[in-house]
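Trying the structure run again after the queue cleared.
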Amino acid sequence: MEKILVIGAAGQLGSELTKSLTDLFGSESVIATDLQESARSKFDYCRFEVLDVMNKEALRNLVKNEKVSQIYHLAAVLSATGEKKPIFAWHLNMESLLFVLELANEFKLDKVYWPSSIAVFGPNTPKINTPQYCVKEPNTVYGISKQAGERWCEYYFQKFNVDVRSLRYPGLIGYKSLPGGGTTDYAVDIYHKAIAGTDFNCFLKSDTSLPMMYMPDAIKATMDLMNAPRESVKIRSSYNLAAMSFTPEEIYQSILPFFPDFKIAYNPDFRQAIADSWPDSIDDSFARKDWGWSPDYDLNAMTSDILKNLPDFFPSKN
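Done. Tokens:
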């Protein structure tokens, strides 16, 4: 039986990915972990343990005692938060990954999943259809940690045969978790404001185009990659991944048919410089070719689905 450990399970990606893993493997096979005890209430469908990923011994004991076979390492300090606490972000993002890779090698785990990001790209990267292989000069601590992490992942695969797999996520948008400190989180918050009937203050310029993805597509891509035959996974740093690109003005316009009185104002802050260093669109042809990636949602389909489901999931926002 597989025993799957999800680290950072209470986050935006983790809360939905953990449910999909439980649906696939069964509740006895999944252990959700997070730093906060308060996260326990999210995981009534599987086992939950409080875990500080920086406690190397506690992590090792959990992997050993539970005979863990797969790790999904999702704990990280995101882009905007990382710029406020750069040394802390580097420390947590990098050292925790090395802990996990070392354990994967020591206990010969079946698979490891670690998410990368479009933050690995920088201002000198080609912005349109950013290729899989190109210049990467990230200028945020989040991006620097993700770039370094990609190199470590490939190193552990090449040197120690650790089956580590990764995706460079674009901005992820979902309705089941609140914004978590990322530069693309405006595209989550805007739906909450529309439904609540309050004006939206956007921290990016109206014409800032960024690659984005609806959470069901992100979960689908992750599961597809992890379930792909080992020989099909040819990139061991991290795969480019794409679904759609849009601007704050375009997402606002997609909401207006549902909420005609909704208002938006643009007041760029420090996150604008982060967004300006990232691509406008992504070439994910390697993911499509190697393991059959294809997204299901465009902007209008995503907006319709979120506005339908969000009021029931966060009734206090309605």
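The two ends are 42 Å apart (CA to CA). Worth checking whether this holds up in the mutant runs.
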